Amino acid sequence: MTKRPLTTRALGYAPADKRLEILHLVGAHGSISQAARVAGVSYKAAWQAIHTLTNLAGEPLVDSAVGGAGGGGARLTPAGERLLAAADQLHAARSGVLARVNAADSAALAGPRTSMRNHLRAVVRRLESDGARDPMVRVVLALPDGGELAALITRESAELLGLGEGLPLLALCKATAVRVLPAADAAAGQGVNHLPGRALRISRGVQRDEVTVTLPSAQQLTGFAARPNRLRAGSAVQACVDESAVVLALPG
Asked: Tell me, what DSSP letter sits at residue 104?
């Protein structure tokens, strides 16, 4: 059987990726439920982590047995072992590079490679939900300028990221998910972030214009404004993005 080559897709973006930690614990304890307990996440979140890694790797990483005379258990497949070995080597290499790069913004060098054009630095301000049985969590983020940005994610994703007050992270969203409106325009509010700023650049299109917005924090956000509009460089605008369109990532 030919081995499938490893790709960085299955190795996560952060050195301490919770999914890889859970996979390691499955190998160490021979149990998904025990791995979940040690990692401090729910059994459901542990399974989500394994499913995600398996999909990214393109082959099974864990063999599991439910019930039976031995009570069931789990073990890593050869592909799972290779994945963890590669992750350890990449972690060591990344740590060596970052140790040699003594710059305030060195974390940005390890940012995720993705088609999403908007990457905003933020810190978790609080987590909101309707109780422990609510499958969704609203994560309220503090931007460097004191403003807020909210993301709606699943409870399992919040657990796997280890979200908590004060955690620095990156808020990502596609440019196509950002609607740019004049600052004075009224827009639907519930479940939508409204970020004030100024139009920096405008690229005219046929049905919509691409607008780069400078936020009060000096961070930039790219979105689209429907035509016709009267926006010009320097215009006061608001960038509107649905909370469910904001993706959270740990910096490298």
From this structure: T
